[in-house]
Amino acid sequence: MRILLLGATGRVGSDILKLAVADQHDVKVLVRSPEQLEVSENVTVIEGDVLNESNLDKAVQGVDVIVSALSTDKTTTLSESTPMLIHAMEKHQVKRIITVGTAGILNSRTEPDLYRFESSESKRKTTRAAEEHLSVYKNLAASELDWTIICPTYLPDGAPKGEYRISEDVLPEDGREISVGDTAEFVYQTLLSNSHINKRVGISY
């Protein structure tokens, strides 16, 4: 499989990269700082920025699927780059994308007409990150792409345990946290199984 991985130097992205490399997939990464990567033979590194349309176009060309583990980093990177990414995917006829979002953009269990970050379920004092991820969701939902958004709750570092709960469009009941390792593992398994098409998927222990 030919995979474009965005956010490969981040916590979740770096774990996804290790899983894909171990299975001998051809992985292309678009990164601003290539020196932060441990590169193997089947990894193609493109130095660039997701906010640069020509960089994105080059990265998307020739791949089968895109995995985005980009974070917000207190910026508008997600909301600015997603329309360009969708355009590049449509241009190069790439249909499948899996992104890592946040549990804040899942539906609230207690107030179903609201997203979690808008409801009393959320303990966050700021909604900036959730609003950025919501922009990704709305853009993907309006497209013709086969998308999936994996939505972890509190995300501490940690190796995969291999046991967790998932639920489409809402967070598993009483979900509190999920490790970086298990989140990366679930993203990777979703990629392999081509499941949860056009769904947000909550994940937690």
From TrEMBL:
<dbReference type="Pfam" id="PF13460">
    <property type="entry name" value="NAD_binding_10"/>
</dbReference>
<dbReference type="GO" id="GO:0016646">
    <property type="term" value="F:oxidoreductase activity, acting on the CH-NH group of donors, NAD or NADP as acceptor"/>
</dbReference>
<protein>
    <submittedName>
        <fullName>SDR family oxidoreductase</fullName>
    </submittedName>
</protein>
<dbReference type="InterPro" id="IPR036291">
    <property type="entry name" value="NAD(P)-bd_dom_sf"/>
</dbReference>
<dbReference type="InterPro" id="IPR016040">
    <property type="entry name" value="NAD(P)-bd_dom"/>
</dbReference>
<feature type="domain" description="NAD(P)-binding">
    <location>
        <begin position="7"/>
        <end position="191"/>
    </location>
</feature>
<dbReference type="InterPro" id="IPR051606">
    <property type="entry name" value="Polyketide_Oxido-like"/>
</dbReference>
